[in-house]
Specification:
heterodimer; A: mainly alpha; 8 helices; B: mainly alpha; about 90% helix; rod-shaped
Chain lengths: ~240, ~35
Amino acid sequence: MIRAYVGSFVSLAGVTAGLTWLYLGMRSVMEVGGACADGGPYVSAQPCPEGVPFLMVGGIFGGLICLGLFMWFGSRLGGSYVGLAGLAWPALFLSLGWNFFEFSFDPPGDEEGIVWGWLICGVIFALMGGLPLLYYVVPKNLMAILWPADPGSPRASRDEPYVPRPIRSRIIDSGPLTPTPRAPAAPPPPATGASAPDDAPADELVDALERLAKLRASGALDAAEYERAKKAVLDG
Amino acid sequence: MGDGRRLANLLMLVAAIAAGIIFGVWVFESVTG
């Protein structure tokens, strides 16, 4: 339980830290003109701001790794908190799209007017981030994630198998399972050549009873007819 | 499992997001000067 909380906290913080590095790194690159280069045998016309390439690459891969970890730990929190991971997509594209918008209207250096290339990128990013966000701005959907009707409980340990909630509610939450009493083992069949499997007659009996139950349910048999037929099947 | 648990979970998630942003800005400022 503690592991689920600590893991969720650290991994979600890692996701937002990665997004922050991408947002700030992109701004610092746009401030030097929108493109930069480092390393290699050539002299770069526009070197990158110090530390930015490292942080942006780290933000991408570190953020993705943390996102995966959050989906792992978040699924163990119970409820639907793991759905919060889907917000990373709108957060990424809307924050970077905001940079495109801002710098297209207020370009760095001596540039005047609107930088249309960045404006178009801003529109594309706004659409990519904004359209999925429409799902989350519906209060019902957002509340289902942040304030679940049934938050469940964290699993006690990782050894406990993960069971999706609808199935869990049918199987586990319906009460403790009691072992079905088993019939005493039948004596081994006499070894006299080929014979049908032991459970074949039982299967036929179950099939016949199921067919009868279906006929009764469909109304083809009334109650009295059903009882008579069932007795006949059971009596052999 | 009631409102207390939900509130604790929500606060934990909000705190994680805030901590990530603060940590990210701090690291960025430290590295880039």
